[in-house]
Amino acid sequence: MYNSIAPISLDDVNAHIEDAQRTFNSGIWSKAPAITRSKVLSRLARILEERVPEIAQLESLQTGRTIREMNAQLGRLPDWLDYYAALLRTRHDFIAPTQGKLLNYVQRVPLGVVAQITPFNHPLLIALKKIAPALAAGNSVIVMPSEQAPLTVLEFAKMAADAGVPSGVLSVIPGFGHTVGKAIVSHPYIRKVDVTAGTKTGRALGSIVGSNLAAYTAELGGKAPILIFNDADLDSAVNGTAFASFVASGQTCVSGTRIIVQNQIYETFMEKFISKVQSIRARMGNPLNLKSTMGSIISLSQLERIEAMVGRTKGRIIVGGRRMTGVSDLDGFDFSGGSFFPPTVVTDISLDDELWQEEVFGPVVVVKKFTDESEGITLANACKYGLGAGIWTTDLSKGHRIAAEIEAGLCWVNTHHRNDPSSPWGGMKESGIGRENGLEAFEAYTQSKSTIVNVDTVEATRRADDWFAEGTEVRRYG
After folding, report:
1. H helix and E strand count, the chain
2. Helices in 91-198 by DSSP H: which ranges?
3. Which of 32, 155, 302, 310 has the fewest Cβ atoms nearer than 10 Å?
4. How high is the pLDDT of residue 6?
């Protein structure tokens, strides 16, 4: 399908953005009736639905993620298109209760040309979470996918054209962040930038976006705590923690990377958890094998970064910790031909250790013990990030109480990494600003336009609105 993807020139970047602006100004999409945009999004959902098996295989090939994961994840993606198609049919603008004989109607109108920069870890999922509300709102959309995983986003753009999205409304521009990405977000036509990236990148882009007085949404780094209380159902907590920690080979911003276990169950939990981890490791193989449990790291450079971070820790490595070589016990797959790192568990960790504080973006977790609720909450919040968090307890009163104290934009109780187009997704602290999903994302891709109409009679208007009339009669100001 693709032999190679060449980054485009900076002149081409400008040409794409200028075309997107012309298309926006034409009104072919930006001023199309909501029902028209809704029907196109619904058609696009059905096209994507039919191609999920094919796209899942492409996603697995370009990322190294297991085909089992990709089948499950991509099967959900039409939901985002259906959600925003339905929103366009059901949402309402409103009339503001302005004083006097005035009709003040407030509409949400599109921003213009918007830019989206998406990562390698969930290439099409994260792109679609951004594209769907942006298109629904009537914007022209420029997407720069990760140079490490652009293929499925490029394919999606073709599907969008087949569904009826006009030319110039959705453009996918492959390239490198430091050149193409910088050129996109720096362009004065760009009215919003939406990025998923590391916190360092988010800060750098934010300074550029701010100088252009454009809107900004950023989903950045994470270091999710998983709090497991004495009363948790242990089997569920072990299974849920393993999923939180090692799905996507730990390459997700909400990975459960800090496992915080209450003292009375610590030993039993660790015994069961290590057994689960060893089972995951034993069943790793060819990512295209449906029985394979965990895939590869995205690149050799990222593998080397993970190795270096684990190598520097002063904690105790219980299992894992070194890149994988040799052949799979599952299917004979040769791990030395790729960038594979096993699920890794580290204990006896200090709060100032790099593995506690910094995002690894790999299948590495640290485990720490706590005694009471107060200590557990303190440990959970002892990090600069605040994207996701998990709580395991059979006492739902406690679950609600602890969730209220956790400094994270997403907090799961007795589950993890649940995602839905209706549910806002975003972080606190250094994990970013703004939200994906739901009505909040749609409104972030629009701006309010307030129209105030005088509905009083001509005679009354002449009396009331002649501010500079002779005399001292009090007249309304504002």
Report:
1. 16, 18
2. 123-136, 151-163, 182-186
3. 32
4. 76
pTM assigned to the model? 0.95
CA distances from 287 to 9, 320, 338 (A): 34, 19, 11
**Number of residues that this document lists for the chain:** 478
E strand or H helix at 172, and its extent? Answer: strand 170-172
- Any idea which residues carry the catalytic annotation? 219
**What would the two tokens of residue 180 be?**
């193409």
In this predicted structure, the answer to whether residue 419 has a pLDDT above a threshold of 60 is yes
Task: Compute the C-alpha angle 328/282/277, nearest 5°.
Answer: 145
432 - beta bridge partners?
219
Q: How far apart are CA 411 and CA 232, in angstroms?
A: 16
CB atoms inside a 10 Å sphere around CB 342? 23
Tell me how far apart the alpha carbons of residues 281 and 290 are, in angstroms, rounded to a whole number: 15
Do residues 221 and 393 touch, judged by C-beta distance below 8 A?
no
Give the tens place of pLDDT for each residue, 220-278.
Answer: 999 999 999 999 999 999 999 999 999 999 999 999 999 999 999 999 999 999 999 99
100: tokens are 């006097």
**Burial class for 105, CB neighbours closer than 10 Å (0-12, 13-18, 19+):** middle
Structure tokens at 26: 């034409």
Q: Are 189 and 21 in contact (CB under 8 A)?
A: yes
Q: What is the DSSP string of 202-269?
A: HHHHHHHHHHTT-EEEEE----EEEEE-TTS-HHHHHHHHHHHHHGGGG-STT-EEEEEEEGGGHHHH
Q: Tell me, what's the pLDDT at 374?
A: 98
| pLDDT at residue 478 is higher than 80 | no
- Specify the pLDDT at position 466: 87
Is residue 3 pLDDT above 90, yes or no?
no
- Rounded distance, CA 342 to CA 249, Å? 8
Q: Using 50, 70 and 90 to split pLDDT, how confident is the model at 208?
A: very high
Is 186 within 8 Å of 162 (Cβ atoms)?
no
Q: What residues contact 168, with CB distance under 8 A and at least 6 apart?
A: 19, 20, 22, 23, 140
**What b/e readout covers 154-186, taking b as 16+ CB neighbours within 10 angstroms?**
bbbbebbeebebeebbbbbbbbebeebbbbbbb
**Identity of the residue numbered 152:** T
pLDDT tens digit sequence for 289-313: 999 999 999 999 999 999 999 999 9
In 256-409, which ranges are E strands? Answer: 256-262, 316-319, 344-347, 364-370, 385-386, 388-392
What letters, b where the CB count within 10 A reaches 16 and e where it falls short, cover 204-222? bbbebbeebebbbbbbbbb
**CA–CA distance, 328 with 185 (Å, rounded to integer):** 44
The residue among 243, 238, 285 whose CA lies nearest residue 266 is 238
Give tens-digit pLDDT for 309-328: 999 999 999 999 999 999 99
